[in-house]
Amino acid sequence: MRFLHAWRQGVRQARSRPRLVLLLYMVPLLPALGLAMLVLATVAPVWGRSLFAQKVLTGSWFGVWRHFTAIPENHLPVVLGPGLLLALVGTVVAQVVLSAGIFAALFGDRAAQGGDVCGGMRHFAFPFFRSFLWFFLGLGLAAAACGAVVRGFFKLAENQADARWDLAGVLVAGVLFFLLYVPLRGAYDLSRMATVRHGDRKTLRGFFKALLAVLRHPVLFFPLYASFLMAILVVHALFGWARLGFTGSHWSGMAALVLAQQTVMLVRGFLHLGCWGAAMEAYRMLGEVRYCRGTDKPLEAPPPAVPLEDVFR
């Protein structure tokens, strides 16, 4: 099956490029560290090495902790509100810019420009931002559709006095979101690959043409993206299951918990790069089409030459 071949190629690409995996791992880590430093600067003067701090670390006194976070003088709502939003926006911007460099590095000498991470970021960051805009708008419409489905099922559950309709609504919305997400994500990836491979800049045209290509080959793209998405969800679910009921009350337990969580993030970076490598192999199978190429305008015939003696008449 073609998607299995693409999947193996993606994993092979991720295994052979550990530096790119490390870059993907660092992108969410740096904003998170900055946010953690802000939280520490806000909390440390109040906590110190007090009994309150120890009780919070062991999971006790959660009500007191909630009251502490709600006090405006502690500035923690500002850090966990606008600060968290700023960290999220910074992570998205960094991911878009870095993806331009990673795609150029994956294409290598076959890229239209660049061929390495720095060159790819320099040449393709702006068209990648425009591609992200189309993907974000499509994702917003998909989320709105799923929200409407959930509200409809919740209303049905209220009318029928049956909570099973609530669960059915969540499941139906989840399946619908996946069915909408895969074509949007495939179009987003394929249009960016076409930009790097051929240097074309018509991102909106490329997004819709790539979307049609994904819909024409569902057997290739749906299992491909589903496998990597499920792998990422399984890794996070295993970590959450292992984390359940575990409270690091000692520095060694806290260090082990942080190490396990960062290992999960590193594995997620590996799977992320593997997904891009697999999508690139699928793009090669489709013939590396120039999705972002503009329409070719016919050349106009030059005006007839005027004899020199007619000019001075």
What report would you give on this structure?
The chain has helices at residues 2-16, 18-47, 51-57, 62-70, 76-107, 117-160, 164-198, 203-216, 218-243, 251-285, 308-311. With 313 residues, the protein is mainly alpha-helical. It has one domain (2-288). Helix 1 crosses helix 9 (218-243).
Gist?
With 313 residues, this protein is mainly α. It is 80% helix and 0% strand.
Task: Describe the sheet with the most strands.
Answer: none
**What structural class do the secondary elements suggest?**
mainly alpha
| Tally of individual domains | 1
Radius of gyration: 26 Å
Portion in strands: under 5%
The overall strand count is 0
Helix content: over 70%
**How many DSSP H or I helices?**
11
Per the principal axes of the C-alpha atoms, what is the gross shape?
globular
Overall mean pLDDT: 83
| Secondary-structure element order, N to C | HHHHHHHHHHH
